[in-house]
Amino acid sequence: MPGLYIHIPFCRRKCNYCDFASLAGRDELISPYLHALKAEAARLKRIFPRPTTLYIGGGTPSLLGPEQLKTLFSLVEDTFGPIKDLKETTFEANPESLTPEKTGLLKAAGVSRISLGLQASQDNLLDRLGRLASFDDFLRAFSQLRLAGFENINVDLMTGLPGQSEAHFRETLELILALQPEHLSFYALEVHEGTAFAAEGVCEAPEPAAAMFALAGPLIEAAGFSHYEISNFAKPGRESRHNLNYWDQGDYLGLGAAAASHRNGKRWANTKDPELYIKTAAGAEGPTLECSETLTQAQRRAEKIILGLRKTGGIELPDDIFIESKEQIDKLSAQGLIEVSGRNIRIKKEALYISNAVFREFV
């Protein structure tokens, strides 16, 4: 079940915490970037089968204008076939750039799932993050999506923000759960070198973030969601198929700057520089690569375990991998971090927030 990812690296303004490959205020590059995407897609079509899922992320894909969105969807369909025939097509959007015209266009194109960025419901926290949209903007965008007929909406939230209390986070959760989205994702703030927060000396807040993580689970599950992956909750049948393919170590093709691909144990990623991507994508060798590697059998086994353990149901290991990993499995079980049932291993619910301690054992 190969997945197709397309990266749109354009934003109106870069958020204070963002270290993704993105450019703010460079709209003049959008059209040449779309031409570069078309060239890369045409080049790779012959070695990659038709995808079953599509994920368009960024950056801010909803920044594209209506004609640019039409161009994007046309290049996908010209290369890989009708979007409507895919099992799932996700489009990332920010509230301030989502208009009724764009929403209708997304629906008509066959997009089936929207991931809407919020982070917090308090406007002062959104301002601190450098977000452009207010909570009212988010509510308008959410309502607009429902009116257009979207029945699969994810909302992104964050924990451990500067000035964020547990009361803030609870209020945000309660407001969002009242809207009845189909999916929720939330992540602890990480401060990366090169971001505005790093320059300001903002520090991560792991303990408050952990407390918010602990608070979230019971509230979200009581609202009918299942906690199916460390950072993700879904209503029944609304799990992200595209992301599940990643966690199941499936093949995927990434198009665009910084996009990563995986096929039969080989992994590569395009240059993070959108301008360099534009210059090189149409060449015989394709875009300049940031990295490329062929995974060893040991690396593939370790990655299979780590990715599988991201899912709360864990992973059923083949006999050979289970035997080879018996020492680490026994150690983690003795520490109370994982549960073992036959050849199935999974991280205990209370240890999900410190899952990195488990992953390290298999690296």
Question: Could you characterize what this model shows?
Answer:
This protein has 363 residues and is of the alpha/beta class. The chain folds into 2 domains: 3-246, Aldolase class I (TIM Barrel, Alpha-Beta Barrel), CATH 3.20.20.70; 297-362, Arc Repressor Mutant, subunit A (Orthogonal Bundle), CATH 1.10.10. It has helices spanning 30-44, 66-80, 100-109, 123-129, 135-147, 166-179, 196-200, 206-222, 241-247, 274-280, 297-310, 319-324, 326-334, 355-359; strands at residues 3-8, 10-11, 23-24, 53-58, 88-93, 113-119, 153-159, 183-188, 226-229, 232-234, 252-255, 260-263, 266-270, 289-294, 315-316, 338-341, 344-347. The strands form 4 sheets. The protein has a 9-stranded mixed beta sheet, with helices on both faces. A 3-stranded antiparallel beta sheet has the order 12-13-14, with no helix packed on it. A 3-stranded antiparallel beta sheet has the order 15-17-16. Helix 1 (30-44) packs parallel to helix 2 and helix 1 (30-44) crosses helix 10.
